Amino acid sequence: MRRLRAECAWKAGQTHRSLSRYLLEETHETLEAIDDGDRTGDWSHLREELGDLLLQVYFHAVIAEETGEFTLDDVARDITAKMHRRNPHVFAPTPDSPVEPADIDEVWQQIKATEKQRTSITDGLPPGLPALLYADKVLGRLAREPAVEPTPPVAEPVETAPAHDPDPAEDLGDRLLALVAEAREAGLDPEQALRDAVRRLLAPRT
Q1: Which fold has domain 2-70?
Q2: Helices 16-40 and 190-202 sit at what angle, rounded to 10 degrees?
């Protein structure tokens, strides 16, 4: 990547911002490869897409290296240190007070909350997340706030609906949010479930 930056005019002209669209594209292509591999059992496409995604990591790391911000080694050290902090049950277990498997998620969330020091429910949530994923993240955070009711109300049945005409978009949004809450309760990923449903819709009819 250093050589490419030095000898390829296009790559030399890229910045973190100009590369952001490619990072997004490669991420979605990687997700598609996971869906394909799960469906066909052939994971070679995922291997290729992970390489393309990894290339983006190298690209950004070399740009940062050139400006003296950080290096790829710094990135690796940071994520290694983070995994050590957030997984004390693996890397630093206490013999007289082991972390039980049922407590692992709670410990993870406590450590993460201490590190992030968020001041609102939406702190750190990218607004560009897909809507179902965004709703799932918000509901998950609300569920950890004891003073907030985490589950949205289910849309009222037609026979008990108020006399005035509801806003169709608002009604649809409430029902979608209720479905996301239902998915969380069942331990399902609503984003993945919808992608799978669309794939079934597009599958050749037999």
Answers
A1: Helix Hairpins (1.10.287)
A2: 60
